[in-house]
Backbone:
């Protein structure tokens, strides 16, 4: 896809308060056409509020934004003609079948009868929903609902797609499927604005990532750029008992311990020589190491580095639950 | 990608959607039509014998006993049908508003009013259908309307106009409700209003305070108008009052509903 001078999404100084508390604090965004942009942040950071403002659902208190060159405040209908939104909560009609939901979107997008039917069956096929098409949506699994939701967004062939936490609450396999779908979308030239609380998701999918914390963008760049912003990784050593852990901690400089899991974290640059020195030191002191793992910096570390308060528990996929 | 608006096309699409939803959720329609029918049976077969003694010859319309009361009651029950059915409107509107689909509609380039118009038209069809059922049931019990064709047309017109007013009211109540449960409760006061009017007994028999309320609330002139058109009792100024009430409520609630819709924020 060519990149015309006008970005797909441009926002400057977006502010929004709810009931006196500032939820968004001067948000600036420039998202090039045909790219995936991930807005990463914990629950309550303001991700959904940004999506709601950019998708014309609510107004900003101040600031300006353009989607595909159209001002969201002055020309909301032009913006609505360009965008597709898949929100955090399923935007489906549970009383209708999958087919009927898609057909409704075809009708509301004013597709010709034949073209609408063709688009519906194409999307059912692409999202592996053909077999489930005649069943009411209320019988669908979470992953199927999410796929149908996204398929409904795509009926009108939007240029810019907002995906607000597209994989929250999905099992790992459904998440992978959703990731593949998102990747395939961008290869067809659309721009994707994605919010997520999963660091690995942003890492996997996004061309550029912005970290949102308490209404402010605290870091922005490619995954690689963000990772380079933080010091090197560490080595994680696991011991069989608390005594060994304590002795090792006393021996190794600058290490931190976790008594519960019997883990020792040692800052490390990843070189073999340094690793050998570390193990020799422990060996000389007759301290047995049960397990060892080398940890290269990931976005978890980035999050900690840029926000100073660590990743929220919600960002762990295993404990994630929809609010 | 089109950005032109298609108000009729969009309204028709959403009307079809809502009718389909009502068909998928028949228990609600049955419950809402069941209520006026239960009232009809209760009042005719339990209270009717006694209540018919209080009806003057003019109101009895040539019938005697229970049949006289049935003929007096049927138009009132018809309006109970409207009041009960619009609870369904509030519920389905609130189901939409508290679900995610409304945000999808609001981020699409569709005519804004079409979402509401689709609900209102579907509810009107449901109410007219319920009205036909209730009248048929009353006729089976012995209700004998004497209206000629123009009077039937006028009665149906007034019924639809009044239904439209209450449907817009219920739509606004459904939009303003924070949950589906609230939405199913708030329009309940409407089902009381036919009792506090001339739906079940003439207002002249009520004590002063109640009578004044009864005479100045919209159900009374509407009941009087439909009763007059169907059974030949006096209408007087009731038709004009009923039309004014209906148009007033419809316009105000339409504006209210539109405002609520465009300022909707999810709970």
Residues:
């Amino acid at each position: 896809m060519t990149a015309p001078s006008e970005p797909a999404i441009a926002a400057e100084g977006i502010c929004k308060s709810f009931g006196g508390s500032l939820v968004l604090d001067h948000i600036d965004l420039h998202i090039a056409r045909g790219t995936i942009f991930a807005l990463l942040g914990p629950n309550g950071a303001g991700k959904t509020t940004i999506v709601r403002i950019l998708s014309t659902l609510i107004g900003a208190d101040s600031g300006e934004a353009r989607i595909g060159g159209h001002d969201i405040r002055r020309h909301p209908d032009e913006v609505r003609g360009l965008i597709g939104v898949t929100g955090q909560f399923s935007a489906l009609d549970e009383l209708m079948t999958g087919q009927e939901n898609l057909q409704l979107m075809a009708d509301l997008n004013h597709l010709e009868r034949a073209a609408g039917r063709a688009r519906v069956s194409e999307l059912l096929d692409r999202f592996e929903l053909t077999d489930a098409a005649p069943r009411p949506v209320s019988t669908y699994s979470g992953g199927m609902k999410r796929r149908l939701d996204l398929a409904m967004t795509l009926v009108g062939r939007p240029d810019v797609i907002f995906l607000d936490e597209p994989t929250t609450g999905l099992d790992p396999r459904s998440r992978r499927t959703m990731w593949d779908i998102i990747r395939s979308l961008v290869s067809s030239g659309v721009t994707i604005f994605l919010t997520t609380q999963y660091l690995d998701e942003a890492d996997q999918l996004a061309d550029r990532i912005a970290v949102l914390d308490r209404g402010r963008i605290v870091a922005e760049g490619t995954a690689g750029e963000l990772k380079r912003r933080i010091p090197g990784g560490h080595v994680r050593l696991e011991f069989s008992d608390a005594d060994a852990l304590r002795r090792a901690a006393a021996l190794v400089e600058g290490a931190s311990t976790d008594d519960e899991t019997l883990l020792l974290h040692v800052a490390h640059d990843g070189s073999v020589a340094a690793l050998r020195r570390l193990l020799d030191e422990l060996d000389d002191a007759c301290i047995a190491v049960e397990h060892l793992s080398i940890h290269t910096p990931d976005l978890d570390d980035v999050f900690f580095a840029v926000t100073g308060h660590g990743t929220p528990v919600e960002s762990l996929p295993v404990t994630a639950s929809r609010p | 990608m089109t950005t032109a608006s298609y108000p009729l096309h969009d309204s028709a699409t959403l009307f079809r959607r809502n009718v389909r939803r009502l068909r998928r959720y028949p228990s609600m329609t049955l419950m809402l039509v069941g209520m006026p029918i239960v009232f009809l049976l209760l009042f005719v077969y339990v209270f009717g014998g006694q209540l018919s003694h209080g009806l003057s010859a003019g109101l009895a319309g040539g019938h005697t006993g229970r049949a006289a009361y049935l003929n007096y009651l049927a138009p009132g029950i018809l309006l109970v049908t409207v009041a009960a059915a619009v609870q369904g409107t509030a519920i389905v509107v609130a189901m939409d508003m508290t679900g995610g689909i409304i945000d999808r509609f609001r981020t699409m380039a569709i005519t804004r009013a079409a979402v509401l118009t689709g609900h209102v038209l579907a509810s009107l069809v449901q109410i007219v259908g319920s009205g036909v059922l209730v009248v048929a049931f009353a006729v089976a019990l012995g209700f004998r309307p004497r209206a000629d064709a123009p009077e039937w047309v006028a009665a149906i017109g007034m019924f639809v106009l009044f239904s439209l007013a209450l449907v817009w009211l219920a739509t606004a109540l459904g939009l303003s409700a924070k949950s589906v449960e609230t939405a199913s409760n708030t329009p309940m006061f409407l089902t009381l209003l036919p009792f506090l009017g001339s739906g079940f007994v003439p207002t002249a028999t009520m004590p002063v305070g109640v009578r004044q309320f009864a005479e100045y609330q919209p159900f009374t002139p509407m009941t009087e108008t439909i009763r007059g058109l169907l059974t030949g009792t006096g209408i007087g100024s009731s038709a004009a009052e009923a039309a004014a009430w209906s148009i007033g409520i419809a316009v105000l609630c339409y504006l209210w509903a539109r405002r609520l819709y465009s300022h909707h924020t999810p709970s």
